[in-house]
Amino acid sequence: MAGLCDPRGRRTAVRWSGRKITTREPIIQESERPEPEGFEPEATRREADVTESSRANRGWWDRNADEYQVEHGTFLGDDRFVWGPEGLDEVEAELLGPPEELKGKDALEIGAGAAQCARWLAAQGARPVALDLSHRQLQHALRIGGSFPLVCADACALPFADGSFDLACSAYGALPFVADPRLVLREVRRVLRPGGRFVFSVTHPIRWAFPDEPGPEGLSVSASYFDRTPYVEQDERGRAVYVEHHRTLGDRVRDIVSAGFRLVDLVEPEWPAWNSSEWGGWSPLRGSLIPGTAVFVCERD
Fold first, then answer.
1. What digits encode the pLDDT tens for the residues 7-20?
2. CA-CA to 81 of 20 to 30 Å: which in 88, 97, 107, 286?
3. Distance (Å, rounded) from C-alpha 121 to C-alpha 140?
């Protein structure tokens, strides 16, 4: 799971929460290409094309993979399949299908991070492949271990033959970070076999209209839901170092249909009573009032 961002400029909330530090030990000690000491990117809203978004986000996740896994590794587990900060677990949700029907299925996890979801799929008897843009994230997948392939590649150009997989999934990976999500959707459809299922989760689009705050201040609309201008963090030269793209709920549906999928379900997980954690802008207060995650269940005819 690659994580998510704060679309309003509070950098502490990028990466599924910012505030909650676990006691999990650091894993790979030195980050590749660390940010210069004292570096603080400028948060803005501006256009960012496919190439700039890919370059920026590959670098960002390589630099921040260690911190992300330390902060969120305990919540994610090593082999747990979680769809979002609410804690919706595939064990109960069965959005990919009943666990007993996953055995022998070829599955692709996109934006895999440390491949926790792929590891869960392997435990059900599936044959997963874990793909991520970030080499550093996949180093964490190697650290945890597993007998399935790890692939470092861009989701807009999947390095697989047509009809290679029965299932594909992406938990907060890839889709929010690409300038044209239709490129990813078309690629996923291409590599799925007829009847294949693709399930992906993203920040619920309505969240872009609200400040990314877990308390009462995060409950008042502060921006236009219809403003699709990308959120960009850039360096002193104006080069993007992190990019996230907003799509409305209608945009997501149209993207799915135009890519040749059939949308069979849209899941908006409610915040469960057992989850008392605050994950950046995700919190029990906000979760009880407005959705934080949208999960799209799609099938290839």
1. 333 333 333 322 22
2. 286
3. 17
